[in-house]
TrEMBL record:
GO terms for biological process: 'de novo' GDP-L-fucose biosynthetic process. InterPro entries: GDP_Man_deHydtase, NAD(P)-bd_dom, NAD(P)-bd_dom_sf. This is GDP-mannose 4,6-dehydratase. Catalyzes the conversion of GDP-D-mannose to GDP-4-dehydro-6-deoxy-D-mannose. Its cofactor is NADP(+). It comes from Rubripirellula tenax. Belongs to the NAD(P)-dependent epimerase/dehydratase family. GDP-mannose 4,6-dehydratase subfamily. Its EC number is 4.2.1.47. Pfam families: GDP_Man_Dehyd (PF16363).
Amino acid sequence: MTKSALITGITGQDGSYLTELLLDKGYEVHGLVRRSSTFSTERIDHLYQDVHTESRLRLHYGDLTDGQALTNLVLEIEPDEIYNLGAQSHVRVSYDQPNYTLQTVGVGALNVLEAARLLNKNKEVKVYQASSSEMYGDVLETPQKETTPFNPQSPYACAKVYAYHQTVNYRRGYDLFASNGILFNHESERRGETFVTRKITRAAGRIKVGLQEKLYLGNLDAKRDWGYAKDYVEGMWRILQHSEADDFVLATGRTESVRDFCRLVFEQLGLNYEDHVEIDPRYFRPAEVDLLLGDASKAKDKLGWVATTDLEELARIMTQHDLELAQRESHAKTFVPN
Ligand code: NDP
Ligand code: GDR
């Protein structure tokens, strides 16, 4: 029988890769899309077919903060699996919009769990909660694993900790198949342009073709465990196929600084990052997470999951993609129609 899944955050980086994966596996995929005055579906446009065709991808308007509509949708679709990826996911922005971040990240997750609890009375449903390494914050143990205590440092991380615990509570209290994936940073050529890796690869490409001269960044000494998003959505799926609901860290087990990532990307283009990168304190955070390094041995042992793309390869994929994007931008700028 065809399995069905509902993805919140389907228009985001992870949502788009997960949709590809699930469609490839034969799933019927439903996505929650926020209404906006301009289209927000660029990352999944290549997968979407007209509703009048036999497409296995269906989009529905909705918002994580609208619990009633979300419940109605879940009861109507009756998905086998729900992947809750929707979030105000930018840590720096969460300081500017703490309340809104809590509503989407914290209350939004609760709304998903409540909807699943109601559906689960009649039909088994599994829930994946997109938890984050940011929950470790000012880390109390290195490397971080499933048993490492949380010590969140931002409004975003506090909201994710709330969502994490509610997921565990619904599993224990209501016997709901609800699992947390505690994912360390994962990036791609589809990463939002204000996250640091993509900001760097976008700028480096534009600098290479002469469209800009400088790149302004914040803290270059922060260290992150960066993987490739395509590897990580496979891990999300495996978490829900496991024999029992549980919580898993997904990470590469290697940490590098923002400065290292800059050096790597600029070198791949024959440039020296020190000639172009300048510090702008506006990108500093009120509290910084200095170092994240994940231990994903539990996922390896129980799910057979490992991150397969190393940082050099990730940087190469993103840098090449963004160089080509910059070349097209440059061409469009200089092209004079006859
Ligand atoms: P993105 O920021 O790329 O995507 C976020 C998605 O959430 C978008 O589809 C966005 O819609 C949607 N969204 C935002 N607010 C709402 C709302 N109120 N109601 C419904 N949908 C909403 O994030 P990623 O794909 O990178 O991350 C996916 C999830 O994983 C997030 O929850 C993130 O916090 C978490 N995570 C990410 C990690 C990473 O390194 N990428 C690591 C660990 C956890 P729109 O397109 O309209 O903005
Ligand atoms: P992060 O990712 O906060 O780890 O959250 P981000 O790429 O925003 O920052 C990583 C590190 O780089 C430093 N930094 C800058 N960051 C941004 N965005 N812009 C800059 O100019 C800049 N300069 C330096 C930051 O201070 C930070 O230390 C991501 C998100 O995807 C979350 O949703 C997810 O939960 C975590 O990863 C795991």
